[in-house]
Amino acid sequence: EYKYNVFHWHLTDDQGWRIEIKKYPKLIEIGSKRSETLIGYYFENHPQLFDGKEHQGYYTQEQIKEIVAYAASKHITVIPEIEMPGHALAALSAYPELSCWNKPIDAACTWGVFDDVFCNKEETFTFLQNVLEEVITLFPSKYIHIGGDECPKTRWKECPNCQKVIKDNGLKNEYELQSYFIDRIEKFL
Length: 189
Description:
Strand content: 5-15%
Mean pLDDT: 95
Low-confidence stretches: none
Shape: globular
Number of helices: 7
Structural class: alpha/beta
């Protein structure tokens, strides 16, 4: 199968939050913006050039409904991707209290994998479940992609809350904490 009839729509990342979530307006007010965009390729330890222009963009729920309906008319299934627990800088820029340290965070202007990820606390799971409830109403596909990979453990190793979740749930380490996170979201979905 070549999957020509599937459109995998990557709607969130470190560089921007691209889907309107009515319950959390700061996702588009703050999270859909980055201060500038890298010009060319990102090479570590290499000079980087930026365009110096703020970039913003997102799809309203009405636009998403139109795109999903159009795709369906062409027999194409749209599968949305909402990244977690990593690739969350754009979401954390809007709601830094969902990070391990509750400090101001900016959406990324470069590419890569970043240490700030969603914290394993109840507020995070409530937020993500509320987001996913709105996503589910917009996409009739039987799948919702949640990413799940590229999640550095740096903040979790230092976070008292994450360490308590590890201890309270009999987990061995932060890798099992990542599985715990994904399992909770999977059970919800």
